[in-house]
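Quarterly update from the structural biology core.
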Amino acid sequence: MMKKQDWVRLGVLAGLTLIAYIPTFIWMVDRWSVADTYYSHGFLVPLISLFIVWTKRDKLFELKLSPTGWGWLFFGVGMFVHVLSALWRVYFTSGFSLIPVIVGLILLFLGKRHLRILAFPIGFLVFMLPLPLVAIANLSFRLKIIAANISTLLVNQIGISAIREGSIIKTKHSVLVVEDPCSGIRSLIALIALGALMAYFSKLSKPKKIILLLSSIPIAVGTNVIRITALTLVSEIYGSKYASGVFHDTMGILVFVFAFLGLSAVAKILE
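Predicted structure, tokenized:
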């Protein structure tokens, strides 16, 4: 157990750290809550991490404390990156620097054994960090082209003539524009986080956990292709107005359902 003075030092250092990161936290919340955000799950990530820590509380209390001065290295590097990021207003790297800062605090006051147990919930915090807008735009564009291309091939295989022009799918009686919200980037980011959770809580071996995590990428892309293909078919057969509104929103929800079922199937196969 930590002594009273150690708890005071930890509280003071953690409190000062939180104050230093206030601008970064404000940026995160703004990106999580802005319209058409790709990071609405960001609010859940720290809560999930805290829940995982709570489930490990018995193991953590059983461990003997073994504080190490190496924590200052992680804490110092993290704070240095944060200060530079704050000066240049590069909030993504500032948010990322929070990870080594937390690692440093754990090493300074608890030790390596505690860090091993807390490694996943700390690393999971990466999923609450919004990517830079430039990276989002680039990734979204690539995903749109991939999804539109595969969907066009599938529609042609079904027997309906279709051509692709950029991210636009043209059939005989309709035109479907694959815009940024339909690129699949939202489901990709959320599904990778879900895949990480499923891999962590599974009883699979480490190589199989990695396979499960990596499978979330093609599953996310594949389910979005199904969505765009369905929208194209409905637009061509019944008219563009039927491919929007309720059907469009329903398919958006089903993407996550199909993706979750796909991940669950992969987990079952790996078992």
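The chain has two domains: 4-130, 134-270.
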